[in-house]
Amino acid sequence: MKIKLTSGASEKIKFLRSLTLKPSLPILHNILIFSDNGTLKVAATDLETTIIFTLKETRWEGEDRFLLPAREISEILNQATEAKICKEDANLAKVLLNGVKFEIALTSVDDFPDLPSLGKEHKCFSVPGDVFKKAIQKVVFATAKDTDFSPLRGVNLRSKSLIASDGHILAIATIYNQEQDTNCIISPKALSLLSKFLSNQNIDVYVGETTICFKTDDLFISTQLIAQKFPDISSILREKMEISCLVEKNALKDMVQKASILAKDAANRVVLDFDKEKLLVSSTSSIGNALGEVSVKVKWGSEKLPVKLGFNYAYLLSILERLEEEIIEIGLIDPESQTIWKGDKMAKYVLMPMKLT
Fold first, then answer.
1. What is the pLDDT of residue 239?
2. How far, in Å, CA of 25 to CA of 17, rounded?
3. What pLDDT is attached to residue 211?
4. What class does CATH assign to 238-351?
5. Nearest CA-CA partner of 205 in 137, 120, 125, 134
6. Which of 13, 113, 189, 340 could make an SS bond with 331 (beta carbons 3.0 to 4.6 A apart)?
7. Given a cut of 70, is residue 238 above it in pLDDT?
8. What is the structure's pLDDT at 11?
């Protein structure tokens, strides 16, 4: 088999290395190159997630399948935007680029796992890739990293939304305008890998009992679902809060960043003091305090003000960085209840305040 790789094909092969870094089996250190019904494809798997690219732009001759070591081929392709690969026989492949010839011993393909394909999964919906990518970016950061409760380690695909929570932040992003009979938990690693190659072309989503698959014209990803139930969040999603305030996002973000300087030895706490026309942002530490002010417009509930709330500044900044609109809406109840943060049509965030005493 002879293959002439374009820069785009090389980038896809290099990207697959991310699935081969910590394999459970030595054979998984490799990338599979194979022909399939007149198309050339490359694949890698860690047994939990499998990624298959179709190399539409690549010229090639011969029908075959063989493995290349992921680390070595990635580092070789880092040296040039285009390359030629020639499989001489079952034991040897040559890679040519910029006048240099690399000879690579091949591992037998017989022990490489069978690649997944669409089977019992049913198609749930199709959505523009750039919409799905944005939704992933808005929620995946909120998955739990340091918990034994495995449902919070994943992203919940429920009905028409992606949902994630680490126990501090609840992130919700709407990806579809119709209700779907879907409720499963997806690995954040798989979603992060998927998001790197999504464009405005539609992506089809297929869900089975144990796997979920994502398919575009040149990309197929299959990943194992987390086999548990995501917590019920209905009790903390109140449609209407007692108080609703409008604040300029960048002004609030700037004040929180400045107040955080003196919050780092005080449990990372900054205090937001809501009043009818202004919002005070403050922090206190053993060496002093910080105080700033931003304007606020109260939509409703002004008779319940003032309200003072404490927040972990890191969680607060994580939310503010992902809200897109210049003016954001903050929904409040009281100093001990959840707050809701909204700043675009796609996403909203629920954040619990910290105790002030």
1. 63
2. 15
3. 94
4. alpha beta
5. 125
6. 340
7. no
8. 92
Does the pLDDT of residue 124 top 90, yes or no? no
Question: Average pLDDT, whole number, for the chain?
Answer: 91
Fold classification of 122-234 (topology level): DNA Polymerase III; Chain A, domain 2 (3.10.150)
**Contact predicate 203/213, CB 8 Å:** no
Are both 2-111 and 122-234 of the same fold?
A: yes
Q: Is 74 helix (H, G, I), strand (E, B) or coil?
A: helix
Most confidently modeled range among 187-191, 262-266, 333-337: 187-191
For the chain, the structural domain boundaries read 2-111, 122-234, 238-351
**Dihedral of alpha carbons 15, 21, 24, 25, sign:** positive
Number of alpha helices (DSSP H) and beta strands (DSSP E) in the chain: 6, 25
**How many residues in the chain?**
357
Cβ-Cβ contacts under 8 Å for 89 (sequence gap 6 or more): none
**Can you tell me the distance from the alpha carbon of 246 to that of 296, in angstroms, rounded to the nearest whole number?**
6
- With bands split at pLDDT 50, 70 and 90, how would you rate the model's confidence at 102? very high
CATH node for 2-111 = 3.10.150.10
Angle of the 129-139 helix axis to the 188-195 helix axis, nearest 10:
140
What distance in Å separates the CA atoms of residue 161 and residue 167, rounded to the nearest whole number? 18
Strands (E), 175-326: 183-186, 202-207, 211-215, 219-224, 243-248, 269-274, 278-285, 288-300, 307-312
